[in-house]
């Protein structure tokens, strides 16, 4: 089965959907790890992973005697994030049932998502570092990202779009995707403003809270997940 219906069919199976969501943080896992997370046998997991590979939703890399599975690329992650928005359409006006620690800050494949990701994009737009219409990087934005330590010439040479809006499934508003979104998260991690926890979860550090407020006026609703 090919085309949209084929991709939808691959994602629709609960076991495969669980595996894909586990890979949404950008990490790579073995078939055994994915099998345990999905609560299925290793043989069942292997069968599902073979189908996902055939549909180009996951890819595998060998390291020694282990084989690690990861999402095929950012486009797969973008599609999954959008589908999670549809999954969370509960009662209008209610906060989606998302764990608080993931709602504040998490990885969406290789870029920043959650409340912090949405607030950062808002701030970049308010300061005219990105244009409202198409998220085009402005001259002021180029200066800010360069001062932050992002290598913009290296990003513009890539085939991947520099910027793109990615609809956040917990905040229901866009955060910044594309190669610039990925570079921004990498730099925030390098500066120690955010830190990895486990899985997709990220935490904002205390120095990060101060720096983000000073640089962009970003203030989180909850700071108990910062340390």
Automatic annotation (TrEMBL):
Coiled coil: none annotated. One of its GO terms (biological process) is response to cadmium ion. CDD domains: HTH_ARSR. Residues 1-91 form the HTH arsR-type domain. One of its GO terms (molecular function) is DNA-binding transcription factor activity. This is ArsR family transcriptional regulator. It comes from Deinococcus cavernae.
């Amino acid at each position: 089965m090919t085309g949209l219906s084929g991709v939808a069919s691959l994602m629709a199976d609960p076991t495969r959907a669980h595996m894909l969501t586990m890979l949404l943080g950008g990490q790579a896992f073995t078939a055994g790890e994915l099998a345990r997370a999905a609560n299925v046998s290793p043989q069942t997991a292997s069968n599902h992973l073979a189908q996902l590979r055939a549909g180009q939703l996951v890819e595998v890399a060998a390291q020694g005697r282990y084989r690690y599975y990861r999402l095929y690329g950012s486009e797969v992650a973008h599609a999954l994030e959008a589908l999670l928005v549809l999954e969370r359409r509960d009662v209008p006006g209610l906060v989606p049932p998302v764990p608080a620690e993931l709602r504040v800050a998490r990885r969406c494949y290789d870029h920043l998502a959650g409340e912090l990701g949405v607030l950062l994009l808002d701030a970049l737009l308010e300061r005219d570092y990105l244009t409202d219409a198409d998220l085009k990087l402005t001259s002021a934005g180029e200066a800010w990202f360069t001062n932050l330590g992002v290598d913009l010439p290296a990003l513009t040479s890539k085939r991947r779009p520099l910027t793109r809006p990615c609809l956040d499934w917990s905040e229901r508003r866009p955060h910044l995707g594309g190669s610039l979104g990925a570079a921004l998260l990498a730099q925030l991690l390098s500066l120690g403003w955010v830190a990895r926890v486990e899985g997709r979860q990220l935490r904002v550090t205390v120095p990060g809270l101060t720096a983000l407020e000073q640089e962009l006026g970003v203030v989180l609703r909850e700071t108990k997940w910062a340390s």
